[in-house]
Amino acid sequence: MHGAGNDFVVLDLRDGRATPDPDLCRALADRHMGVGCDQILTIEAPRNANAVASYRIWNADGSHAQQCGNGARCIAAWLVRDGAAPAHGDFAIDSPTGLHAVTRDAQGRFEIDMGAPEFSPPRIPLAGFEGEQDEYALELGGGTLRFGAVSMGNPHALVEVDAVDLAPVGHIGPLLQRSHAFPESVNVGFAQVLAPDRIRLRVYERGVGETLACGSGACAAVAVLAKRGRVDAANGVTVALPGGDLHIHYDSNGRIAMSGPAVFVFEGEWNQ
Ligand SMILES: N[C@@H](CCC[C@H](N)C(=O)O)C(=O)O
User: Fold this and answer.
1) Any coiled-coil ranges, and where (predicted)?
2) Are 207 and 187 part of one and the same domain?
3) Atom of ligand 1 nearest to the CA of 59
4) Which residue, of 74, 89, 115, is where some domain finishes?
5) Known binder of ligand: residue 95?
6) Model-level pTM greater than 0.90?
7) Which residues of the chain register pLDDT less than 50?
């Protein structure tokens, strides 16, 4: 499946089969000798009585992730397709960070309650900075990098740029991931604000590299930019990523809602 080009191998393990180990995740994710994907998603029997199903997330390098916005929409679409979740009513899915409410937006796209952004440095975690700031500065790669930081259940840094096509994604992304400032590494977004309701974004993801879209990264970008007054998240922001658009807004409780595509591509059997 994919959500705006962020692609997944989805394993339905609700019959109790074991979750894949990191070696199997890396083999599945290999774009030349496996299936190829950014993340592996496993659907499992619900661990929470209020959820239709639980799920877990592995990055292409075999590391475990706590949050995946595009993956959450794909899980929701999978559960509706097989009749486990209602096609029109609301329901909940259980991620590694807890329950996400799933609704449909005005266009019929899956909308996920992604929770409230967490800006406190220890909660991100961001090391070496006292107190929450709109912008942090770090000496990196021979210069000073200015970035925002937030947790959407997983860690994100956001660098605002004038031209996202020219952003040093493949240079600064890995440098910041290896920096002492992010002890659990980080997803690094590069955002260009076009208008209060529209931004462009590229994300260098933890455990993968640059992807065509990152749902939690889109939420993180809007959260950081809204805090600086650069976008109007209460009225909604379209985030244009290389693989397509996501729609992000703050709901009346200060939580972030995200909607976008969830696409089935093919089904198969793994023979190794
Ligand atoms: N692509 C995802 C995020 C997947 C996890 C991330 N790479 C991490 O390690 O935190 C999304 O759509 O949110």
Assistant:
1) none
2) yes
3) 7
4) 115
5) no
6) yes
7) none
